[in-house]
Amino acid sequence: MSLIGALVGAFIATTGQLAITRATRRDRWADKFHQRCAQIYALERECDLAVAHILNGEGADRLDAWDFATRRIAEAEILLLTGDVELTRALTDLTTAGVRLSAQARAMAAGGGDQDQVQARRAEHAQALIRFAEASRRGLGVDSVLTRRRARRLLPPTRENGSLPPAGWPIGPTGGSGAFLPDRAQGDQQVR
């Protein structure tokens, strides 16, 4: 009987150790994935700011100093860490938009580019950056119901986005939902 107890105890200890090791690896993976996504986002924002300097006539020095090697390493690590097709597509689109933006901005800095074309590439790059950020959040599991609720609070209150109850519902201190409507004078905070 004590032999069976010892074997069961050893099995439980081994299983627990494996579970802890796996959870630790998953945490390290998620941390590295998060860092690389944030790094790419920050580098791409820096590229956009460098292009803004060119548009303001301040020269291409900031764009020339942009860290291409770090960007390529972070991109490679993300591609190796994930098999998420949506994230991979968003990252590829962001890279393509960044290359186009950089080329157009350099042409303008050299005197051969058009400011409207640079602005169009900049808008394309901004949209690609938003898609990458959204795909990264989903890849990290951050895009949850709670996150959508927080994002909805940033929108003006309407019935369409769900921040106000349907028409006809009694609302107010004595009404059915028990909640006050947001008061612009109080700064969009609901009292519950």
Structure class: mainly alpha
The Cα radius of gyration reads: 25 Å
Poorly predicted tracts of residues: 171-192
Number of helices: 6
Assembly type of the chains comes to: single chain
CATH topology: the name is Four Helix Bundle (Hemerythrin (Met), subunit A)
What is the chain-wise order of helices and strands? HHHHHH
Shape: rod-shaped
What is the architecture at the second tier of CATH? Up-down Bundle
DSSP summary, beta strand count: 0
Domains (count): 1
Summarize this entry quickly.
The protein has 192 residues and is mainly α.
What does this protein structure show overall?
This protein has 192 residues and is mostly helical. The chain has a single domain, classed as Four Helix Bundle (Hemerythrin (Met), subunit A), CATH 1.20.120. 69% of the residues lie in helices and 0% in strands. The protein is built from six helices and no strands. It has helices at 2-55, 61-64, 68-81, 85-109, 115-140, 145-154. Mean pLDDT is 76; it is low at 171-192. Residues 155-192 are annotated as: Disordered.
List keywords for this structure.
rod-shaped, mainly alpha, 6 helices, Four Helix Bundle (Hemerythrin (Met), subunit A), 192 residues, single chain, disordered C terminus
Layout of helices and strands:
Elements: H1 2-55, H2 61-64, H3 68-81, H4 85-109, H5 115-140, H6 145-154
